[in-house]
Amino acid sequence: MTLHPMIAALRRHKAGVVLIALQIALTLAIVCNAVFIIGQRIQRVNRPTGLDESNLFLVSQQWVGAPSGDDPASVDKLDSMQQADLAALRSLPDVASVAPINSLPLLNSSWNGSVALQPGKDLRAGNARTTYYFSDEQVLSTLGLHLVAGRAFTAADVQHQAMHDQRGPSIVIMTKALADKLFPKGDALGKVIYLNGDAAPTTIVGLVERMQVPGVGSWTNSFTWNATLAPTRLNANFSRYAIRAKPGRLAAAMHAATPALYATNPMRVLDDDSVKSFADIRAEAYRADVGMAILMGVVCLILLAVTAAGIVGLTSFWVGQRHRQIGVRRALGARKVDILHYFQMENLVIASVGAVIGLLLAIGLNLLLMKHFEMDRLPVIYVLTGIVVVLALGQGAVFVPARRASNVPPVTATRAV
Amino acid sequence: MLKMTHLSKVYRTEVVETYALRDFNIDVKEGEFVAVTGPSGSGKTTFLTIAGLLETFSGGEYHLDGIEVSNLNDNARSKIRNEKIGFIFQAFNLIPDLNVFDNIEVPLRYRGMKAAERKQRIMDSLERVGLASRAKHYPAELSGGQQQRVAIARALAGSPRLLLADEPTGNLDTQMARSVLELLEDIHREGATIVMVTHDPELAARAQRNVHIIDGQVVDLSEDPRFHVVHAEHTGTNA
What we know:
The complex is a heterodimer.
Chain A: H1 4-11, H2 14-46, E1 56-63, H3 72-90, E2 95-100, E3 112-116, E4 128-134, H4 139-143, E5 147-150, E6 159-162, E7 171-175, H5 176-182, E8 192-195, E9 201-208, E10 227-230, E11 232-235, E12 238-245, H6 250-264, E13 268-269, E14 275-277, H7 278-285, H8 287-321, H9 323-331, H10 336-373, H11 380-406
Parallel strand pairs in A: 4-10, 6-11, 7-9
Antiparallel strand pairs in A: 1-12, 1-13, 1-14, 2-12, 3-4, 3-8, 5-9, 7-10, 8-9
Helix pairs in contact in A: 2-8, 2-10, 2-11, 3-6, 8-9, 8-11, 10-11
Chain B: E1 2-12, E2 17-28, E3 33-37, H1 44-51, E4 59-64, E5 67-68, H2 74-84, E6 85-88, H3 100-110, H4 115-129, H5 144-157, E7 162-166, H6 174-189, E8 193-197, H7 201-205, E9 209-214, E10 217-219, H8 228-233
Parallel strand pairs in B: 3-8, 3-9, 6-7, 7-8
Antiparallel strand pairs in B: 1-2, 1-4, 4-5, 9-10
């Protein structure tokens, strides 16, 4: 089958051809970009935080009538209350380890600052942005962080200070990503850095493989893996405890945490939302991303279905319109399969025109999104896959009406119009 | 060339059987020009559609160019239609979206013929019907007579063994009808076998032999007393 007479015939039905080709083009452009965005969202949602997330949960609580923390005595009092909580939680039979912590990856509550290689206020912008996690000597085992160089914190390293105290720690553990950014030669261990433009030096004593910052918004994209761990218990009228349950005992440990804390000190606020598994924290953090991915997926499916319906509708109309013509072709020697192939080839021609226009539209739309919404460049494989999908969709959609056409009997040629 | 023996065609519904053809016998020799006549509803067109393998029959035998066609599948029937039969329809049945050249090319493409041979045959057949200059015209740009000539060119291009014409002048005025008929006579003189269905006695008279169909059967009018008066009024129209 050659295309010349088919294209000549299609030229005489321009309106239908143009409409379907444009519909295919728009579908291709939108679906390619939407699938790319969905892919990016899924990749984002599934990226590991660096924590061993199983059996991990977080307790957030607030004391009622606690000291202000404005003077050393009240800070000491707050710290003793926190240590009592830690002791109570660590004594639970289903708990493996507990660490006080100001935040967790994906919690969307962060304390961010800068890290510099030189001291001084004029370098406040620093060499890199980072998120600070304040915890104690059990932080690595509790969060399941993987130490790749140096050492963990010891109990002797851990200090405590008021939440509003601006003093920095003397030692830190940081993520390898942050260390490599500051020291590209890979010799960060033992090096001195300066936090938040402070003049006091801080020494890097350990490196962890990976740890995500709490924020999940696009504003954290530049420092997603830049985390710094300080051996400091922060004292305020509230506290958070990261708790690792023993394997398979997560539910039991979560159930036991609240009564244990109340038994230690009933003057506190602990509600249903205060005890959260890390799985819940992850789900909550990425709810918008997952929702957006589902919404875009549904929109893509609707678009594809509408395009398929358009092809079915137009082909059915053409089959009805050319009923006698099909009979004439059959009378002149066309086999059923020739008629089937005719309509399939006709659809392939229209869909190919749509695919070429769609390819240009997809690239154009991607450039627009890159300019206005910080989207990445659309990989060619998405467009190529999209072209294959719309061509296959066209062939699938045209099959039923084309098959109906192929069943038009040759005797139709002799019947009156 | 075309031989039907005790052929029948029955249209069945849940409550009734209607015989379009019953114990139908005809034998058309190679090179004959046969006119098939008969009143409306007599079975002329049914005969033609079965002869052209456009539809199947219910009983009896049909040999076309020596081939018994009753057991052929759809593809084999399509191949015979394409290679052995040329159709000329009353309504011309040109494809309006294709120009004259492409219309004539349709059956040749289904035969898988090479482009150069297709072009040669198309131009030859257009020359034959006197429309070589209209190759790029669309059917809507031609008169009825010209459209029928294109349809004849399409039928001739495939060099068929048998030409089947269904009221070929039925949609034409007298002058155009005469020129189309003269063309068919020329084609016959060159050796083609032609079977033409018509209800026009004048047209039928130009054929070598007339076959009359009544109630789905071939009848010999000279031996049927019911038609002696009519026969006398139209002397010379029946073989």
